[in-house]
Design brief:
75% of the residues lie in helices and 0% in strands. It has 450 residues and is mainly α. The chain is globular. The chain binds tryptophan (TRP).
């Protein structure tokens, strides 16, 4: 943490938004949101998810931004520059563990996108019936290829992180993310014309409040944290590159709106097809990968669209995992004094081991459930524990730190767009949410779940 070299700051506001959105938008929107919404009953989940984005997501995002921008440090440095040698460092450790767990299972799913990209390029899916598509995905899952792709994806991550070429990847993804957005809108229109469209939309948008259970609530909260990349200091680290003129509240709102919009569009893309092609919405992690090929296969020039879509999804996944591995690497470099290359190698090696176990959770290890926890396989355990428990715990710590330990006048100044004059509405409400609402609400949700 002795680095005091001046940081090169973001040149433009667009650069800020593109980078934070690059971390936020990924498999969380296109794969995890529809699968979680499907498992948790659709509309009821959606309402809770949006409520959590507003009540917790935007304020915690502002907290990470304020802490990062004011200290110009990563999460460990930020905590210790305000409270040196304190227990707050453990907050950073939770982030490291969560990042490693997410990196492991996320890479498995990113591997699926690579398989589908290659298969689409080869035209391998065209002309297959829905049943054949289904069978080919099932037989892919039980073979060794998912393990291979997980390793390949993590190795790509290694090269990007170790060589520090993130900037290059970011530049490519800044061009491709808007294209992905356009493509999704086009596919949504196609989905809205399907015979199952009204049933699909009713499932997603018509809340059945009787379906709200503690597990739906915790799932929606976890999804809000996961999708906004909150709780482990990723957004905090990005904000350490903000200039003093980057508006915090506005940037947080834009990031959260775009991220939520892409999740909603993915839902509009997936659920009409789910009901048209007779897939169960509660299918789980494989849902999106069972439905998308059926959609693409029916489009004229389907394999070209399919290849484009999966390639962009792969890139979106890469910009998201780059931010996770960076979190772990920074820990090893700053706290353990490792060289960047060895730190990256260690991070990726751990993720490869856990990633293989996650990939095998759909085949040879599918029957291996964990003691005490019941019917979770390793993949689901990693997914559930990191997103639904560790990220919200990290969220409590960041909220309490920024709301109660960071100086209030500094926080108000960070949150105000105008440096002088009366504090804005957001600058008055957000500190209250951070010091009271967020910690109490998250704790109550945990207790009710127990
Ligand atoms: N938000 C990303 C997505 O939706 C995933 C992600 C990137 C993430 N960095 C993170 C999740 C940090 C939690 C914490 O795909």
């Amino acid at each position: 943490m002795k680095q005091s070299s001046p940081r090169s700051l973001f040149a433009t506001r667009l650069g800020v938004i593109a980078t934070t959105v690059g971390s936020a938008v990924g498999l969380g929107n296109i794969w995890r949101f529809p699968y979680e919404a499907g498992v948790h009953g659709g509309g009821a989940f959606l309402i809770l998810y949006i409520a959590f984005i507003l009540i917790l997501g935007v304020p915690v995002l502002c907290a990470e931004f304020a802490l990062g921008r004011s200290t110009h440090r990563g999460i460990f440095g930020a905590f210790s520059s305000i409270r040196p040698n304190s227990r707050w460092r453990w907050g950073g450790i939770i982030g490291v563990v969560a990042s490693l767990m997410i990196l492991s299972f996320y890479s498995v799913v990113a591997g699926w996108t690579m398989e589908y990209f290659i298969v689409s390029v080869k035209g391998g899916l065209s002309g297959l019936s829905d049943a054949e598509l289904h069978a080919s995905f099932s037989s892919f899952l039980v073979g060794w290829r998912p393990v291979g792709w997980t390793i390949v994806f993590l190795l790509i991550n290694y090269f990007v992180t170790a060589r520090g070429v993130q900037k290059g990847v970011e530049r490519i993804s800044n061009i491709l993310t808007p294209m992905l957005f356009v493509l999704i809108i086009a596919f949504c229109i196609n989905s809205l014309l399907l015979p199952g469209a009204s049933e699909g939309l009713a499932f997603l948008f018509h809340p059945d409040f009787s379906k709200i259970t503690p597990s739906v609530v915790i799932g929606a909260m976890g999804q809000a944290f996961f999708s906004l990349s909150l709780g482990i200091g990723v957004m905090l680290t990005y904000a350490s590159y903000f200039t003093d003129r980057t508006p915090i509240v506005r940037s947080a709102m834009i990031t959260a709106s775009l991220d939520t919009l892409i999740a909603l569009l993915s839902g509009i893309l997936i659920f009409p097809a789910v009901f048209t092609y007779g897939v169960s919405p509660a299918e789980g992690p494989t849902l999106v990968f069972e439905v998308l090929p059926s959609i693409f296969n029916r489009l004229p020039g389907g394999m070209i669209w399919s290849a484009l879509f999966f390639f962009m999804l792969f890139l979106a996944s890469l910009t998201s995992t780059m931010s996770m591995s960076e979190c772990v690497v920074t820990y090893f470099v700053e706290e353990k004094g490792m060289k960047r290359k060895s730190a990256t190698a260690l991070t990726i090696a751990v993720a490869v081991v856990f990633g293989i176990l996650c990939a095998l959770s759909f085949s040879s290890l599918s029957d291996l459930t964990l003691p005490f926890i019941g019917s979770f396989n390793i993949f689901n355990f990693f997914d559930y524990t990191s997103s639904n428990i560790l990220l919200p715990v990290g969220g409590i710590l960041i909220s309490v730190f920024v709301g109660r330990i960071m100086s209030r006048s500094l926080l108000t100044k960070q949150l105000s767009s105008r440096p002088s004059g009366a504090p804005s509405f957001a600058a008055r409400v957000i500190p209250f949410i951070l010091s009271w609402v967020a910690p109490v609400l998250i704790t109550i949700i945990f207790l009710v779940n127990l």
